Amino acid sequence: MAKREIVFQNSTYALSYELLNQHQPQTILFLHGWGSSKEIMKQAFGKCFPAYQHLYLDLPGFGASSINDVIETGTYADIVQVFLKALHVKPLIVFGHSFGGKVATLLQPEVLVLLSSAGILVPKSLKIRVKIALFKMLKPFAPRSFYRFFATKDVEGMSNVMYEILKRVVNEDLSAQFLTCKAKSFLFWGKEDTATPLSSGEKMHSLIKGSHFYAMEGDHFFFIKQAKQIEKTLGEFGW
């Protein structure tokens, strides 16, 4: 594991990363999902794609990477671009899981591999809509500690900065970006995924021209057990 400090918009980010197969000329960048780290991507794909250099990155605020400012997904992508330039690396392929899929899409790589990616807004259930309405009514009168009562399990143990980031990115709709995506795109999805449902993947597939869509056994983290099949599928297309 290594760290590289980069500066973006007057803020310094210490980014933790790891390289495998460093003798290979072409690189795959792996981006994890929300609340996760590079370790889960390495666990899944570390023994796959031996013909490529692997770059596993902790996105700012996750794993061992730092963050101080409240940012949006577009800024995450900008920071990753600065990081890649600092390493003199231009990935041929970018993998992105969940939140990392949004960042991967904005990087506009030649080959894009999305794993149960976020980016398509899913209609909220009546229960959640009532919860949001109640929160908005009580917010002016409640202490900050009261906010967490209404928060999801995703925010447990989260810093205030990351909580504010989550509130920003959770409602981002990247439909327009998917529609204009020029990458050779492969979408893999867990059939039992409830975090980013299969319908989101199907919608994304319909938006990304020429994309390939694969529904696989498993939940939101289906790729941990399906990595070899994903490697085989990409290999059939020459990647």
UniProtKB/TrEMBL annotation:
Pfam annotation, one family: Abhydrolase_6
GO molecular function terms attached to this record: 2-succinyl-6-hydroxy-2,4-cyclohexadiene-1-carboxylate synthase activity; hydrolase activity
Occurrences of domain AB hydrolase-1 (ranges): 28-158
Key words of the record: Hydrolase, Lyase
EC number from the UniProt entry: 4.2.99.20
Family annotation (InterPro entries): AB_hydrolase_1 (IPR000073), AB_hydrolase_fold (IPR029058), AB_hydrolase_sf (IPR050266)
UniProt protein name: Hydrolase
Organism: Sulfurospirillum multivorans
